[in-house]
Amino acid sequence: MTRTVAGPRAGRARLVVLLGPAFVAAIAYVDPGNVAANLTAGARFGYLLIWVLVVANVMAVLVQYLSAKLGVVTGRSLPEVLGERLPRPARLAYWAQAEVVAAATDLAEVIGGAIALHLLFGVPLVLGGILTGVVSLLVLAVQQRRGQRAFEGVVTTMLAVLTVGFCAGLFFSPPDPAAMLAGLVPRLAGADSVLLAASMLGATVMPHAIYLHSSLARDHLQAPSTPTARILRGTRVDVVLALVLAGSVNIAMLLLAAANLPGRAGTDTIEGAHAAITGALGPVVGVLFAVGLLASGLASTSVGAYAGAEIMAGLLRVRVSLLTRRLVTLLPAIVLLMTGISPTWLLVVSQVVLSFGIPFAMIPLVRITRNRELLGEHRNALTTQVLAWVVAGVIVALNVTLLWLTFAGQ
Q1: Are 77 and 218 in contact (CB under 8 A)?
Q2: Beta carbons within 8 Å of 326's beta carbon, 6+ residues apart
Q3: What sections of 75-206 are H helices per DSSP?
Q4: Burial class for 43, CB neighbours closer than 10 Å (0-12, 13-18, 19+)
């Protein structure tokens, strides 16, 4: 009888030990860029595009699992595998585009943190960007001094904070259940909804999340005696739980806007959406939303800096201090904030740059995880590979469409 009780408890304990990396990677799905897109979708089209976020999340689960599986099975990150297989000129060129993507990611996250500090305390954007960078330095210091598990704990705590901040408004003004169910039916309403749906789906997977997740999964479990099959089972649970949480937060933001901001002017910017939320639901909800945005910016910029360091280590075989890396990548964001350019416009530009980087991360990941030489019996099955190519094709095509529509509309 003791064994019957202890067995499940021991199994749950082993499972909990395997959780963590996906919750760090999931931060990429609730960054300030996603906040702006989700609020705009809800304010302009109500519940119409809920199905887009559901489809996006399903695709993200597959992509992030493949990245994590690569790290678990091979003991190497995606940048490391690419660094081993590419000749030096190609490796340097690949690193250059990945660095541009990492810089664009950092720009969006620092801007998000700066806007949040401005909303909460009236801090000027430039100073807010500097403070965001300083706090992210402290978060990265946790990883360097206390290890990856402690870093995962800090980032997961921030994920919990932003979840509360972004979802709190729903308790004050619940959405319409019937309209929510109707929003699960795939449909669109004109060219504007097509553009917004393409941006929501196309920006589902962030390149730095793919690069980093393989590294996080590689380093998470330091017990070589644990069977790979068991680690992969735990990894699947980790990915599903983390992305269900991130997807629920994104849907909650859309529902919040759909229920309270329909037809309101100015909701296409984060500041305007915050003002509208405060006006509709009161200052308490407005403060909670701004706190969620701050947690999103701080966590995202820390994770982005971590990803950049792993990209450099894998492709250039040069490992620099995370703190040094943080200081270097913070400078472009601060300089751009000092120019006085609209933060919302900078967010849009950063998302466009990220779109360019999607194929460079997606296509190698799908090809490599089918490789028998690297993954052996854990390589993608035929069904998984077909689904992975479909998802990669959809995401790449949507990003190309989004780029074309963005520039065509200028």
Answers
A1: yes
A2: 133, 136, 137, 140, 305
A3: 78-85, 88-121, 125-146, 148-167, 169-172, 177-182, 191-202
A4: buried
Contacting residues for 305 by C-beta, under 8 A, at least 6 apart: 106, 136, 140, 322, 325, 326, 329
How does pLDDT run across 204-227, given as a tens digit for each residue? 788 999 999 999 999 886 556 678
pLDDT at 185 over 70: yes
What is the C-alpha to C-alpha distance for residues 278 and 283, in angstroms, rounded to an integer?
5
Element (H, E) at 190: none
Asked whether the beta carbons of 328 and 180 are under 8 A apart, the reply is: no
If you write DSSP's letter for every residue of 264-326 in order, what string do you get? -TTTTSHHHHHHHHHHHH-HHHHHHHHHHHHHHHHHHHHHHHHHHHHHHHHHH-----HHHHH
Residue 202 has pLDDT above 70, yes or no: no
Residues 216 and 92: their CA atoms lie apart, in Å, by 23
Can you tell me whether residue 195 is helix, strand or coil? helix
**Going by C-beta distance under 8 Å and a sequence separation of 6 or more, which residues neighbour residue 189?**
45, 48
Residue 295's nearest CA partner among 53, 26, 25, 27 is 27
The string of pLDDT tens digits covering residues 95-115 is 999 888 888 888 888 999 999
CB 113 within 8 A of CB 283: no
Return the structure tokens found at 247. Answer: 């997807």
Secondary structure (3-state) at 167 = helix
**CA–CA dist 388, 70 (Å, integer):** 14
Question: 162 with 299: CB under 8 angstroms?
Answer: yes
Residue 282 main-chain phi, psi, to 5 deg: 105, 165
C-alpha–C-alpha distance, residues 177 and 21, integer Å: 33
Half-sphere exposure of 70 (CA within 13 A, CB side): 27
What Cα–Cα distance (Å) separates residue 175 from each residue in 164, 181, 285, 286, 338?
A: 17, 11, 15, 17, 39
* Phi, psi of 290, rounded to the nearest 5 degrees: -65, -35
Domains of the chain, first to last: 2-408 (1.20.1740.10)
